[in-house]
Design a protein that fits this description.
- The protein has 350 residues and is of the alpha/beta class.
- Helix 6 (148-157) links the parallel strand 3 and strand 4 (161-163).
- Strands 1, 2, 3, 4, 5, 6, 7 and 8 form an eight-stranded parallel sheet that branches.
- Helix content is 43%, strand content 12%.
- Helix 9 runs parallel beside helix 10 (252-265).
Length: 350
């Protein structure tokens, strides 16, 4: 790995800001160097302002099922976690939540998120999609690995976007922490989203055990390769009911660095300030918004369900009502002089 001095590192940041292109070695050098973080974050914020403006897109997150067939070692929803109270939200309640988010809270995007719950087959999901789309909203799904035909069916029913995190581009690490799953299939599913005509959302965890800084550079290059429309980056926070309960976990600083470099390389995409960042630090989302992020997803799931959708412990705003969650988010936005978008937040490639 090349070790650059600060003037050269600053030139690399300028190159990324102006050309939106760094090679793997250059990305690694910036990730390792902690002396230029503020310059990196400022550059990402400048590029964010230039390409996607000051508006922040708010997306209503509804966590509609915490059942999952998978057994990922880092996730509190994992199949073998017997300490979790499982739930599913029925279609009528889902529609009512989406309607409240749209008509009463003024939110233009609904995000339906769940574990990989086989109860919600294609017919059920398409029925839900068609009904929610009558509300004149953009619709994002985050429900795991599906076939290309299923992705096409969701698109035909009205879905606009799909979020499927790659989690890590380190195949050995993926095999270790995602038992019974295939990295190659995961990557193909992400590519299939684009084939199906859906906006591609992906992302990674930062700070998994044995994860190397070099792999974050590979992650960013992967985002570029698949032509992602949205990327969510969150620090890994160990859950007590998982095999990684005693792991150290990730840091906000490294998560912000990966996020900022992603903004510089993919200047016009949507990047959320993730809830995990806020959980790790009280001002984590604000820091993210000032380092390249332009999306926040206020949680509009009913409190009685939200406390059981525990991907990681200490999840921020767990006890807030949907309306209070929105107020908290708007207060953060106002405090840094930004404004809430009135649009649907589609990726406008430039």
């Amino acid at each position: 790995m090349l070790m650059y001095n600060i003037p050269i590192m600053k030139k690399l940041i300028e190159k990324a800001k102006n050309c939106h292109d760094l090679n793997r070695e250059e990305l690694i050098a910036l990730l390792y160097n902690d002396d230029i973080d503020e310059d990196l974050f400022a550059a990402a914020d400048e590029v964010r302002k230039q390409y996607v403006g000051d508006e922040i897109h708010l997306r209503a997150l509804i966590e509609f099922s915490n059942f999952c067939k998978n057994n990922c070692c880092y996730c509190g929803l994992r199949r073998d976690n017997k300490n979790i109270q499982r739930y599913r939200i029925d279609e009528n309640t889902l529609f009512a939540l989406a309607k409240h988010a749209s008509e009463n809270m003024g939110l233009k995007t609904i995000v339906l998120q769940s574990g990989e719950d086989m109860f919600f087959d294609t017919d059920k999901l398409c029925s839900i999609i068609r009904r929610i789309k009558t509300l004149d909203v953009a619709l994002t799904l985050s429900i795991g690995e599906k076939t290309l035909d299923e992705y096409k069916a969701y698109k035909q029913a009205g879905a606009d976007r799909f979020l499927l995190r790659i989690e890590t581009t380190d195949k050995d690490l993926y095999a270790l922490h995602d038992p019974g799953m295939s990295w190659e299939n995961r990557a193909q599913c992400i590519r299939n989203l684009g084939i199906a005509g859906l906006e591609i959302g992906s992302g990674v965890l930062v700070g998994l055990p044995e994860q190397k800084v070099e792999s974050f550079a590979d992650d960013i290059l992967f985002f570029k390769q698949v032509q992602a429309d949205m990327i969510g980056i969150g620090p890994f926070i160990p859950h007590p009911d998982t095999p990684l309960k005693d792991a150290k976990g990730g840091t906000l600083k490294m998560a912000l660095k990966v996020m900022a470099l992603t903004r510089l390389i993919l200047p016009d995409i949507n990047i959320p300030a993730t809830t995990a960042m806020e959980t790790l630090a009280p001002n984590g989302q604000v820091k993210a918004l000032q380092a390249g992020a332009n999306v926040i997803m206020p949680n509009v799931t009913l409190t009685q369900y939200r406390k059981h959708y525990e991907l990681y412990p200490g999840k921020s705003a767990t006890n807030y009502t949907p309306d209070k969650s929105l107020k908290e988010v708007k207060d953060k936005i106002a405090a840094i002089g930004r404004k809430v978008s009135s649009g649907y937040g589609y990726h406008k490639r430039r």
